């Protein structure tokens, strides 16, 4: 591959970039070796025409402000929110804002000027809001300075609104587009001189702006990675040993030779085989009839039952770690007037992104490229480099917006490594790897399985005097990031039950409290699944709270309030949701309410569900969900995340379970791994209760209150607590 | 070699008769707006119209299409002007967007048959999976595309608790 500069303009808006590169091979190299047009005469003239004021802002002559986005967009609206934050400080015309995605190679080449590209843990906005706002403010200062210089007036005398700069004393005005070239030549302002706006004065941020990325999602024009077309492209279908830890023994390629379009079989690694063909359907069809011999190994003896026994042992074992300890919970419970106990459990879950795992890799001796839906483009870059053997500066990642992420496409990048192994057999030829839905279900990094034993002691007045929570379950870090396991501990297993404020704090003060966990790992790969451990832990603590309230003869809301006086923010969202949902007021016959609150990702959530149960049929009529995420960048998109999180949470509540049989996952497609459908979705009302004194996450926090609020409503309706998910295992179905 | 009419254009395609229509559309004709999600007609991401009827193209062999007219998302309108597309835009329906081609095609087919669908009609017709959970806005957008007012959609309030 040549690195010489073609006539391709250094416009790195992704679609143009890909089309340009497809047409002119070497154009791709341009993006890396000559980032933003530094270098060639042609590139310099293009950069001069569309000057980069700073890393975050490019202003075109027509006043279009191009805002650069480092984080991934997977539906959660971060792209629009980040653009709002930059535009707010930039003081540009929101109607003239557009965005472009940077690449991991560009970030590397410019010494990570755009900082972290990882998009997970609901950190996309809260983790970058400060420096992107500063980027917008710095660009504004430079644009104003350029106008002041042109007019030879002090910069303090010029003002800007909607990208129009004015000098009141002389009546002159100009626009960002006209001074951008001059502004781009100025030095960046001293960071200490940058003053960010008080969010209370926001005009663009904080408002329910429409998403910037909708139009192409309505007509099929949006190019997801799975849609990429490159000249000469080949397609790969893949299958790894269905038993985790099993190995590939052999395959009989002769049985598929001669099939139309099939190129060949590739051994991807010691457990994985792929078929390469000139269309993906031909590759997949050939793979389905390829005789493969696996050595399934000892894990083939594992099942959901053996795993459940393994976890159950951890509920009473001696090797638990205490996450919180106040007073003497065990003695307080033993000596209490009333004592209750329960054991809960939650299953493995697959992410099931609508766009299955996929990527396209093109390799040569000098260069490795991947087109990929990724939540972490820099992890993709690292995976590309290590698996191709080429240094980072000879690798590039073209990030496509994701057809769903939910934690599946973060650090692991297994599909990138697989595709590199396949593409090595086809030098210079782009190879697109697509996982079938079945492969996607069979080889996820699943939400970890866990069980929980809870015990509570109540005094004669029904006050909670002792609480003991013991979680037994699998650790994500033990599987994905063993270096993060310190002294055998993974504190994330108690996410949402921590004592420390700020991130995922338990909202209750109990005089005698013991919260502990035992790590019980299995052979099944696990990873972060939208909400991670808050989902399971909220079910345990919030459903048991209702069991305790019932034993105490108290209203579940009042029972909670009595324990929350030292946790005002938790209490604030609980009160807000109770008020909006008319807690305590009459409901139609047969309809019952359930309530829950929890904290995760720096934000406070609460929900009230209205549910009726008729025989085996459960109707969730309405859900009111309250969220305090501190600052609200886009209330309309926050509502969209809350609506979506209810669907994600209720899918898990009603249907979600990956069972293990003979060492492998049984549910391989949507016929058995069911999803909530439109008819089953309740009406969702979102109550945003910002306190404007912190930056919390949005994408994940509210999922965890969906399940317990509905389960508590079912408990209210039937008098019988549901202690294991999904509800289908209890014969309960949504209507 | 067989003939296939897609979005008003006749294509000559040289493929196995059992190749699903979805893959002919995506990989032979090159229209990638129609998506693969499951391959077993469960999720609806691959929904197209065949003679006006919504069909899950991942499970239909191309040989079964014959001379019928296939319309994909790319053929719904030249400029996002179909009432369903306009309503989807007005209510900010899509999140990741991957399923929305199929959702829009399912909604357009419903409205062809029932210009004023009830909620029950929408429940019955809109069975496509959306993993982002945009169903509330989809329901509202179908009503909006049918010309109704006060259709709902996003339902949120912002209550300042900074002085609470």
Protein described:
Chain A folds into three domains: 165 residues, Aldehyde Oxidoreductase, domain 4; 151 residues, Aldehyde oxidase/xanthine dehydrogenase, molybdopterin binding domain (Aldehyde Oxidoreductase, domain 4), CATH 3.30.365.10; 336 residues, Aldehyde oxidase/xanthine dehydrogenase, molybdopterin binding domain (Aldehyde Oxidoreductase, domain 4), CATH 3.30.365.10. Chain A has a seven-stranded mixed beta sheet. The termini of chain A are far apart. The N terminus of chain A is likely disordered. By secondary structure, chain A is of the alpha+beta class. Helix content of chain A is 29%, strand content 23%. By secondary structure, chain B is of the alpha+beta class. Helices cover 30% and strands 15% of the residues of chain B. Chain B has a five-stranded mixed beta sheet with strand order 2-1-5-3-4, sandwiched between helices. In chain B, a hairpin with a 2-residue loop joins strand 1 and strand 2. The model of chain B has no long low-confidence stretch (mean pLDDT 97). Strand 27 of chain A pairs parallel with strand 6 of chain B, so a sheet runs across the interface.
């Amino acid at each position: 591959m040549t690195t010489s500069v073609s006539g391709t303009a250094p416009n790195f808006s992704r679609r143009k970039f890909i089309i340009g590169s497809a047409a002119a091979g070497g154009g791709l190299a341009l993006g890396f070796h000559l980032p933003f047009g530094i270098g060639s005469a042609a590139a310099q003239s293009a950069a001069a025409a569309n000057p980069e004021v700073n890393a975050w802002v490019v202003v075109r002559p027509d006043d279009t402000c191009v805002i650069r986005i480092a984080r991934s967009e997977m539906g959660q609206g971060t792209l629009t929110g980040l653009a709002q934050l930059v535009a707010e400080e930039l003081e540009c015309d929101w109607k003239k804002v557009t965005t472009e995605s940077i690449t991991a190679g560009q970030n590397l080449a410019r010494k990570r000027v755009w900082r972290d590209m990882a998009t997970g843990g609901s950190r996309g906005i809260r983790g970058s809001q400060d420096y992107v706002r500063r980027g917008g403010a710095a660009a504004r200062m430079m644009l104003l300075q350029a106008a002041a210089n042109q007019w030879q007036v002090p910069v303090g005398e010029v003002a800007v609104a909607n990208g129009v700069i004015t000098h009141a004393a002389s009546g002159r005005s100009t626009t960002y587009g006209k001074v951008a070239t001059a502004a781009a030549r100025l030095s960046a302002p001293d960071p200490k001189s940058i003053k960010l706006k008080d969010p209370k004065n926001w005009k663009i941020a904080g408002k329910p702006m429409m998403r910037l990325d909708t139009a192409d999602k309505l007509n099929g024009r949006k190019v997801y990675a799975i849609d990429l077309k490159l000249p000469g492209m080949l397609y790969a279908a893949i299958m790894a040993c269905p038993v985790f830890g099993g190995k590939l023994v052999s395959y009989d390629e002769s049985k598929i030779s001669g099939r139309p379009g099939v190129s060949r079989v590739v051994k991807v690694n010691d457990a994985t085989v792929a078929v390469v063909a000139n269309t993906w359907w031909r590759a997949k069809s050939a793979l389905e009839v390829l005789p493969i011999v696996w050595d399934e190994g000892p894990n083939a003896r594992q099942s959901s039952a053996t795993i459940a026994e393994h976890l159950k042992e951890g509920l009473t074992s001696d090797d638990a770690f205490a996450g919180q300890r106040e007073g003497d919970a065990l003695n307080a419970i033993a000596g209490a007037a009333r004592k209750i106990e329960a054991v809960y459990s939650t299953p493995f879950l697959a992410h099931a992104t609508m766009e299955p795992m996929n990527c396209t890799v093109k390799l040569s001796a000098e260069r490795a490229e991947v087109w990929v839906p990724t939540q972490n483009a820099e992890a993709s870059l690292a995976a590309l480099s290590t698996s191709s053997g080429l240094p980072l500066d000879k690798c590039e990642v073209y990030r496509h917006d994701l057809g769903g992420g939910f934690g599946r496409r973060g650090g692991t990048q297994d599909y990138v490594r697989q595709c590199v192994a396949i593409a090595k057999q086809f030098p210079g030829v782009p190879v697109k790897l697509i996982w079938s839905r079945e492969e996607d279900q069979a080889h996820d990094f699943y939400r970890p399985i866990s069980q929980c034993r809870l015990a509570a002691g109540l005094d004669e007045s029904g006050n909670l005097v002792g609480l003991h929570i013991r979680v037994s379950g699998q650790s994500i870090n033990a599987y994905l990031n063993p270096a993060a396991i310190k002294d055998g501990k993974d504190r994330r297993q108690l996410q949402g039950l921590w004592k420390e404020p700020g991130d995922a704090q338990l909202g209750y003060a109990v005089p005698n409290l013991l919260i502990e966990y035992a790590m019980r790992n299995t052979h099944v790969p696990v990873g972060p699944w939208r909400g991670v451990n808050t989902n399971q832990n909220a079910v345990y603590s919030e459903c048991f709270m209702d069991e305790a309230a019932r034993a105490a003869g108290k209203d579940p809301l009042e029972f909670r309030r009595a324990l929350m006086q030292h946790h005002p923010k938790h209490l604030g969202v609980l009160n807000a949701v109770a008020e909006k949902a008319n807690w305590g007021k009459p409901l139609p016959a047969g309809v019952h309410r359930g309530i829950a609150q929890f904290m995760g990702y720096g934000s406070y959530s609460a929900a009230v569900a209205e549910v009726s149960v008729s025989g085996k049929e459960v109707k969730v009529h309405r859900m009111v969900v309250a969220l305090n995420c501190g600052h609200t960048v886009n209330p309309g998109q926050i509502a969209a995340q809350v609506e979506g999180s209810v669907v994600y949470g209720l899918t898990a509540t009603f249907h979600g379970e990956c069972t293990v049989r003979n060492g492998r996952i049984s549910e391989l497609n949507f016929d058995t791994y069911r999803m909530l459908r439109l008819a089953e979705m309740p009406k969702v009302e979102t109550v945003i209760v910002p306190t404007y004194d912190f930056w919390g996450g949005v994408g994940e926090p509210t999922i965890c209150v969906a399940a317990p609020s509905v389960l508590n409503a079912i408990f209210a309706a039937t008098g019988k607590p549901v202690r294991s998910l999904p509800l289908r295992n209890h014969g309960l179905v949504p209507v | 070699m067989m003939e296939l009419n897609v979005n008003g254009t006749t294509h000559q395609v040289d493929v196995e008769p059992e190749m699903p229509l979805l893959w002919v559309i995506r990989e032979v004709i090159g229209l990638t707006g129609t998506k693969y999600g499951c391959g077993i007609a469960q999720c609806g991401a691959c929904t197209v119209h065949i003679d006006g009827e919504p069909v899950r193209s991942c499970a239909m062999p191309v040989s079964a299409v014959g001379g019928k007219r296939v319309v994909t998302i790319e053929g719904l309108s030249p400029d996002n002007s179909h009432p369903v597309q306009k309503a989807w835009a007005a209510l900010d329906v899509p999140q990741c967007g991957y399923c929305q081609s199929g959702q829009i095609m399912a909604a357009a087919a419903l409205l062809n048959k029932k210009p004023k669908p009830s909620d029950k009609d929408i429940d019955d017709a809109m069975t496509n999976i959306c993993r982002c959970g945009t169903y509330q806005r989809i329901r509202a957008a179908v009503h909006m595309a049918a010309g109704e007012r006060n259709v709902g959609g996003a339902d949120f309030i912002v209550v300042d608790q900074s002085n609470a």
